[in-house]
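Notebook, p. 212. Picked up where the previous page left off. The plan for this session was modest: take the two constructs that came back from the sequencing core last week, fold each one, and keep the raw output in the notebook itself so nobody has to go hunting through shared drives later. Recording the first one now, exactly as returned: residue sequence, then the structure token string.
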Amino acid sequence: MKQRLAKLIPAGSLVLGITILISYLLGLVRDHYFAQVFGATRALDAYNAAFLIPDLLFNILVASGIAAAFIPILTELLKLDVKRANKYANSVITAAIGSMIITSIIIIIFADPISALVVPGFNPEDRALVAKILRLLSLSPIFFGISNAIGAMLVTKRRFLFYGLSPILYNLGIIGGTILLAPRFGITGVALGTVGGALLHFAVRFWDARRSGFIFSLNCSFRTAEFKQTLKLMLPKMLGHPIELATFWAFTAISSTLVPGSVAVMSFARNFESVPVSLIGITIATTTFPILALAIVDRSIDRFRKILKNSFLLIFFTSIAAALVTFWIKEPLVRIALGGGAFTTSDIARTAATLGMFTLAIPTEASIQLLARAFYATKNTIIPVALSVVGFVIAVGGAYLLVPRYDILALPLGFFIGSAVELIFLAVLISARTRRLFSSVSKNEQSCYERF
């Protein structure tokens, strides 16, 4: 029995799954204090809205390249030349630091017009609060830029413990800001705690990277073949990777036109829904990714397909079960986690209804995590990017059209429809992609043999 589970579940999934579970439990604690201290108010709306822009720009400029290109390229380099691999890793980290510092400066300068774009439905006073919080949160992407580059390296080496501990410390920083700083500084105290949590997120990964033997040094070797390949893979991913954030940016803009607290309600419901997606989909997809990349390097199509099939079935059916459980317990879950204080009975009912609609997207969103990484393992970013854009258009367009009839429930309904379409096309196209890829490899090998 243990041997069967070991073959079915990728190594490291248990460690990463436990740390993600703890992180999301702390996320519920964080949301509990948000609800108790602020309730579904414009202050919490302002924090959630301000959070979007730094996160979006970070995902466009840094996380896009790391998620798609860094792991398969570093996996190949580590088999060929460790010294060259370390040089490559340092060049990526250096580029991440530079791009995030420039981005933070731009956010600080243009925070006022940016806030008007994010929350067009807010009055001038509320937009000014968004701009104030935005300037504070602009520091977080600098720490996240370094942390995610280091984190990708830890995943490549299959060191998942401290990789998984980083979001736990991040949430502790936000909770600390809410409990210790919010009574004195209001919602800006939460923003300060968020920046502190980002610093902890980076520090724990950096410490583990040093333990693994990695030596950090600023390196501007941006003309190497592997760095150029990273940029090549990164360009389409710069559009695709932040699509989810862009989707919820659009949802935030739509929510800002509804009754006060709608942004907070949508955010709370989304946070509940993302727990099983992360615990099941992201955990298994993350630990499977380097194994799929190694199968590509070793040119083993049978191993690639077997791993992908087993992981997909595990994610899909487990996430369906999680969706059913979440739907069944949605109202008591919201009441226990968020109820009381400034969070009223009507807030509980509205959040529970929104969460109920969001559960439709748990299996589709969780499964997309794996199939997208399967494409990345083959060093193809264009197909998942194109499909994520299609999903974005369907989700946002559908939500906008359905809002007059379904109010806030239109947002999770549109999100589910978009993710379902994206999943179907990914599943069809990954099979065609692997057939073409390995057929090409076989022809090249046969040609070499005939010449020999």
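Okay, moving on. Second construct, recorded in the same format:
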Amino acid sequence: MALKPVMLVRPPIEILFDDGFWDELEEAGINEVGIQWLALLDAKGDSPNRYPQPEDTHPRGLAAVGGEPVDWTPGPAYAPNRDLYDGLSYQPQDLPDHMVGLSTKLKLAIENATQRGFTIWTMDDKGYFLSGGFGDGTRKAALTCVNDPDLVGYGIQRARDTAANFPGIHGIILDGPDFKWEIKPGHRDDLFLEECGCRHCQRVAESLGFGYDRVLEGRDAFKTKLQELSNEAVEDFLANRAGLFGSMDWWLEDPALADWMRYKAAVVEQHVKALCNGIHEYLPEMKVATSSRMPSLAPLTGHNLRRKAAFNDFEMPKLYWWSGGVAGWRGTAMNWVDTLVDWNDGLSRENATAWFSAAFDIPIPADYQTADMASEAPDSFFSETVADQIRKMLANAGGPDRFMPWVGLEHFGSNWLTPSELRRLLGQLEAQGAERYSFFVYNEIKPDIWDVITEFSKK
């Protein structure tokens, strides 16, 4: 049975204007495309970025901007219906007059694609800190708090507006929100640095029976426990903390730590559930997919995949396995073990690795320890570690019909997955019955990677 990707395309999404792009996918047996983001490039915009991005080497991306890299601004793909956003504190960008022709061209490209039998997804890339969400690529970090109910209202209305402008769109991918998961000091995703504490955060904490100070108390208690991992403590953990009640006992030694975890789970579920339910209320035929980290890290980031299955249509855990850079599991495992050894005098690397493996319930092969993870992974890593996470993802999502994991090669200066690693990763997905995945991202595909993708999609 074929294993087919939902092929993600990011700006320049003007790639979609190229008939050859659709012909190429059709020939490969690929019939789903995701647009990340639904944003057109504005040559006259005042917040330019370089396109294609340095890692995006696909010739179609360069051709879409005229053959040479450009400094253009991602902007809206359509003119918003202002009535939908009445009373909301977030408002979408207007479509500049000089972009109307490009917007019309995009609508025609998507219409033609759906007539050819392609399924089209769009993506709200972390709308909780984008001023635009669907159809607006302007990134404004720390703009707001994920607990702000107006942000959910904006996301729902943006979905309605997008569906009205692009009636052929089949589904919407919600990326995040996530709490952080790294402990390496200074890392972009250092979980000990994240805090907000605004009135919206306070409201959610109080709904759980405590104040926001309790959330920070629990977070800091977790750090203290991690800095008290002697060899003896780890050996006790491994020998005597196994199973549901053993691990629960470890968490409940400091009740504030459990409250911190409850808070994160409540924040993510309330936000994502409200978005999914609101989109389904107005657009009952629209499929909504929600993203998460792998099962080993998802609880730390606030995600309960089985509970999310009650209100989403697809779960999209991130099968990100690279090292270095950000967001890859091998890099995270290396950072955790290195940091635990740095924090705890005398703690052996062997015990730090064993604790990480046990605490996050993920096997680490004897022949591929964290010190080796900057190098290409052996088969044991795929048959043990990768297979374990895919099995749990499938079960938590509710089976292959509700499962659409992310597969990517890199992030921000990481070590890229090799064609051999991608082949073995897709082989594990296929072996466990997966039917589709979301490939991130078309713009950076090289011929040897394309060969691996089509090896599975053409079956």
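Notes on construct two before I forget. The longest strand covers residues 119-125.
Flagging for discussion at group meeting.
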